[in-house]
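Much of the work behind modern protein science is quiet bookkeeping, done one molecule at a time. The fold becomes a row of whole numbers, each drawn from a learned catalogue of backbone shapes. The protein below has been through that process, and both of its lines are reproduced in full.
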Amino acid sequence: MSTDLHGRTQRLELADQNLRSFDALVLASSPEGIVLSRSAFYPGGGGQPADHGVLIWQGVETRIAGARKGDELYLIPAEGDPVPPPGTTVRAAVADERRSALMRTHSALHVLCGVVFRDFGALVTGGNMEELTARMDFNLPEIPPGFKESVEAACNAEVTADRRIDVRVLPRAEAFAIPDIIRTATNLVPETVEEVRIIDIVGLDCQADGGTHVASTKQIGRIRVAKIESKGRGFRRLRIEVGS
């Protein structure tokens, strides 16, 4: 299956991460989920939460409280909201402030990942994010003196460097030929995936990723390493905050 198609839905956000509004045809609908012909709602994954937004149809508004992937890509209507019937044309809008904050946060995590891998050789064992706050876990047995301060300074140096963040889709074999393309301790890309989406912070971090990102590191804003926690022998959790 092409990376820009999930079930019957064309995924617009993978090609245009700044797209916030679009028209689409309702293919199926129920209070449990709405299937559109095309969608820019990110359905969640890789630690990035799903988008929120609205559908406008025949003078009616349906709030979208989330999205999920299954046999189809389902938009989840807010409880009690009317649902457009199949065959309806809708105007859809993704909540801009939330998406933009999540894009900055996701890119900040990739900067953090790139810095910790480059400077300390540590792989990622987990991560999660909300708007402008996130955590990332590393297999990092030792924490040297000044680690927190040096990581924060290095991350913000990469932000100031205004590195370009490129998106590419490559055949699986070509993608996996890139050194260190998997920065997690476990390869999370299913064997059935034939095309791999690559997020490349040019000169710092290049890895397989399905989420949404800003166009350059300067758009992230300042990265603050808020806390470092021990999560068992050899594992550390870094919590970050993203500011202006």
Summary: The chain is about 20% helix and 40% strand.
